[in-house]
């Protein structure tokens, strides 16, 4: 017979690292900022080398993506296909990760 109760304030079930990390991001309200950083780092993968090589700078702030391009024709083409670019981002990172894109 046990004299003492088994006291442990931690959760008894095992939580996968991914879930624990998601909970941490939610708790500290960092999820949006983390997604913005992931989107910026995945720009080359999403758009390909031809567009990425003509991207002079890219950053995200408040769910807005700002892309500075060194090629006028590429900028015009992306502006005309803005909804397709947003769809690519949405497919990879989920709805609402980026609300709008500004080509500079």
How does this structure look, described?
With 104 residues, this protein is an alpha+beta fold. It has one domain. The chain has helices at residues 17-27, 31-41, 43-47, 49-52, 72-80, 82-93; strands at residues 55-61, 64-69, 100-103. A three-stranded mixed β-sheet has the order 1-2-3, with helices on one face. A hairpin with a 2-residue loop joins β1 (55-61) and β2 (64-69). The longest helix is centred in the last third of the chain and has 12 residues, at 82-93. It is elongated. The mean pLDDT is 87.
Offer a few descriptive terms.
DciA-like; elongated; 104 residues; single chain; 3-stranded mixed sheet; 16% strand; 3 strands; DUF721 domain-containing protein; alpha+beta
If you compute it from the alpha carbons, what radius of gyration comes out, rounded to the nearest whole angstrom? 21 Å
The geometry reads as elongated
Helix content: 40-55%
Beginning-to-end CA distance, first to last residue = 73 Å
- Order of strands across the widest beta sheet? 1-2-3
Give the secondary structure arrangement, pairings included.
Layout lengths: L16 H11 L3 H11 L1 H5 L1 H4 L2 E7 L2 E6 L2 H9 L1 H12 L6 E4 L1
Parallel strand pairs: 2-3
Antiparallel strand pairs: 1-2
InterPro entries: DciA-like (IPR007922)
Protein name: DUF721 domain-containing protein
